[in-house]
Amino acid sequence: MKERPILFSAPMVRAILDDTKTQTRRVVKPQPERSGDGVLMWGASHRGMRFGVEGMDVPPGVLVRCPYGQAGDQLWVREAFMHEPADYCWEASVSVPCRPAVTNYRADFPNSQPGEGWKPSIHMPRALSRITLEITGVRIQRLQDISETDARAEGVRQMRDDSGCWVGREGPGRFVTPWPTAGEAFCDLWRSINGPDSWTANPWVWAIEFRKIS
User: Fold this and answer.
1) DSSP annotation of 120
2) What is the pLDDT of residues 111-131, one digit of tens each?
3) Which of 39, 120, 181, 201 holds its CA 20 to 30 A away from the CA of 97?
4) Rg of the Cα trace of the chain?
5) Which residues contact 32 (CB under 8 A, 6 or more apart)?
6) CA 94 to chain centre
7) What is the full DSSP assignment across 24-74?
8) Is 158 helix (H, G, I), strand (E, B) or coil?
9) Which of 39-53, 68-82, 128-142 shows the lowest per-residue confidence on average (mean pLDDT)?
10) CA–CA separation, 162 and 75 (whole Å)
């Protein structure tokens, strides 16, 4: 079992804590290329282990490696945070903490804005991470092949009214754009994170399934 870090935005951290996000998709880098006979070719950096591959012909003997791990491995979540170390007082030549260390997580303050003293998730050390995930499955697929069920597992949520619409992200002032399906809401979420043309590009992605263990 190996352990690796993974970054999530504040809304996605909230979805993980609410147990509504159990999957994540990350772009395969570099993207595989098809040979003249239609077989998908992989660079040496991806070789190492085999797992489920959707809609792909992999050359015989080639083992494909996901950089995020395989089933049974763990991921510790990096998220935006603030940390104040403990203060110490000296009493009888002994250092005694007079104020314990405090860590706050931006996901717990949904009305907060970028900046405001928050450190980016990339700078979070392992010791301050509060969420550990266990990988339960890894697949490769084209981004647009995501199913409606898997889109829901990506953390999009249904509107809290009787419309039946889905929401993928929060806009400025916490306004939301309703979508008729979870797949369209996930498309909106993906574009907000990866850029306006990222969905149209339809890249190969790692589809990583996980469960929260802490």
Assistant:
1) P
2) 887 667 899 999 999 999 999
3) 120
4) 20
5) 40, 41, 42, 43, 46, 56, 204
6) 44
7) EEEE-SSPPEE-TTSPEE--GGGBS---EESS--PPTT--B--TT--TT-E
8) strand
9) 39-53
10) 36
